[in-house]
Amino acid sequence: MIFNSLFFLACLFEIGGGYLVWPWSRRSYSWFFGGLGCFILFLSRANQPFQNTTFHRTYSAYSGIFIVTAIIWGLIDKKSPNRFEIIDGTVVLLGALVIFMRLVSDRLIKIHDKELAY
């Protein structure tokens, strides 16, 4: 459960940080927006070394969750996704679920093997 929560939190931090950098770079907002956005973007990547799997699986699963979270963020920002974004979100979410199932099964096997060792 912590694993999934860290993914979602990282997505929120990455999107939120990018959202703060955007007005700083595009609309001449205060440097504070850019600095805070960069710091939040840094925090979004700080959790990845704590994941208990290989980098490629972690990053692949995270990317799928990120795309879906970005679409949800757009809904909150009152931007309706078009049909291609919905199709893309569905495809990558299914891909991320397959990777998550693999990650969970690997963990269950490790737990089961440790129990058998005792």
Mean pLDDT: 79
First and last CA, distance:
25 Å
Q: What Rg is obtained from the alpha carbons, in whole angstroms?
A: 17 Å
Number of E-type strands: 0
User: Which regions are unreliable across 5 or more consecutive residues at pLDDT < 50?
Assistant: none
How many independent structural domains? 1
Percentage of residues in strands: under 5%
The largest sheet, given as strand count, sense and whether it forms a barrel, is: none
**Structural shape:** flat
The helix fraction, in percent, is over 70%
Q: Give me the secondary-structure category.
A: mainly alpha
- The succession of helices and strands, N to C, reads HHHH
Provide a count of the helices: 4
Key traits:
single chain; 118 residues; mainly alpha; 83% helix
SSE blueprint and pairings:
Elements: H1 2-26, H2 31-46, H3 55-76, H4 83-117
Protein described:
With 118 residues, this protein is mainly α. The protein has one domain. It is built from four helices and no strands. Helix 1 runs antiparallel to helix 2 and helix 1 crosses helix 3. The protein is flat. The chain starts with a helix and ends with a helix.
